[in-house]
Amino acid sequence: MQSWQPLLDWWFGPEASASQTAAARQRLWFGKKDSQDAEARERFGELVEQALAGGLGDWAGQPDGWLALILLLDQLPRMIFRNSPRAFAGDARAQSLVAEGLARGLERDLAPIRQVFVYLVLEHAEDLACQERALYRYRLLLDGAAEAERELFENFLDFGERHRVVIARFGRFPHRNAILGRPSSAEESAFLLQPGSRF
């Protein structure tokens, strides 16, 4: 078994359709639960630390390893270091890995539901060009989706569009300001009082 396989098994579960996988794993992916954060820390914290220190680069040579390394840099820090600056510590390396992997076409060997977690790196970026690239990729997934899967991929596109709007307006995600010690402008503070302003 490849060293990255336990992480992929935990994140995606057994092989199933995109809708079945999302239904089964949605709470893990997008829920905020102390027990899940603790499990991520216990099972994969050491790998996250290696990835954040610049290690595990050999994983990026294969599509599944590339995806797993992206998860270690982008998704798991948001769980393990929730509400602290380290939650975003892997973002820059994750963005570089995504750019390099997409240039090599590594995403083509991943199922569409797995590709979503590559494009989420772009959606997390405080950069409008990355946001545009994320939307382009989500549209491709939606265009290729079977009828039964379209609603799922429409939702991913919708969330991507909401992220893009915030970056187009502010150039950053205001909900990160307090965590990162950045002062909020008056406009950002007003925005943060609105429903749906925090991702």
In a few lines, what is going on in this structure?
The protein has 11 helices and no strands. It is mostly helical and 199 residues long.
The CATH class, by name, is Mainly Alpha
Q: Spans with pLDDT under 50 lasting ≥5 residues?
A: none
Radius of gyration, rounded? Answer: 16 Å
How would you sum up the global shape? globular
CATH topology: Serine Threonine Protein Phosphatase 5, Tetratricopeptide repeat
Number of helices: 11
The ordered H/E elements are HHHHHHHHHHH
Report what the structure shows.
- The chain has 199 residues and is mainly α.
- It has one domain: Serine Threonine Protein Phosphatase 5, Tetratricopeptide repeat (Alpha Horseshoe), CATH 1.25.40.
- The chain is 67% helix and 0% strand.
- It contains eleven helices and no strands.
- The longest helix has 21 residues, at 150-170.
- The N and C termini lie far apart (35 Å).
- The model has no long low-confidence stretch (mean pLDDT 96).
